[in-house]
Amino acid sequence: MNPSVDDRLNSVLRALQSVVLPALPESANLAREQIMLAMGHIQIIQAQRDATPAHEAGELADMSDMAREMLAIAGGGEPIAAARAALAARLADEDGLSRDRAEAIREAIDALLRTAHAGGERDYHRRLAAAILPLGRARAAKDRAWFAPMGFDSEMSA
Predict the structure, then answer these.
(1) Which of 49, 101, 124, 147 lies 20 to 30 Å from 118, alpha-carbon distance?
(2) Same domain (yes/no): 138, 78
(3) What pLDDT, in 10s, does the model give residues 92-127?
(4) Rounded to two decimals, what is the model's pTM?
(5) Long-range CB contacts (within 8 A, 24+) of 12-21
(6) In a shared domain, residues 29 and 9
(7) Nearest Cα to 80, choosing from 124, 37, 38?
(8) 55 and 97 in contact (C-beta within 8 Å)?
(9) Domain contains 155
(10) For residues 26 and 99, what is the distance between their CA atoms, to the nearest angstrom?
(11) Distance separating alpha carbons of residues 19 and 12, to the nearest angstrom
């Protein structure tokens, strides 16, 4: 029988804590810090593992909403049309994991914003920004809450 994910992560933690960390000289401050950081991240992964699929599905939903908002805003020339088509294609693609789909949509959103900015489409870029900034703020608040128990955000951490 194969060991569970938690068994494997705990095995890595034990190796880092019981073998690797003690083997480092006290003077290896950076290496010791990095080992402890890796251990902390493994513990975070373990703590969030069960809730991760729902978090990733929520992120995909938010990225999809943002993409739809952007596609509802008309404007721009041929480079904009190509970037809009790429975003629409990413939004329509329902294959793959939520995190991969969200990342693909995020990349297409970024490409459309860069294209609008680089092409001098100031009014179009301004309308895009006005539509997506509130959505981005809401997504950022969710991400901050997701990591709040880890102490990464002094304003949201206990």
Answers:
(1) 101
(2) yes
(3) 999 999 999 999 999 999 999 999 988 778 888 889
(4) 0.81
(5) 12/42, 13/39, 13/42, 13/43, 16/42
(6) yes
(7) 124
(8) no
(9) no
(10) 40
(11) 10
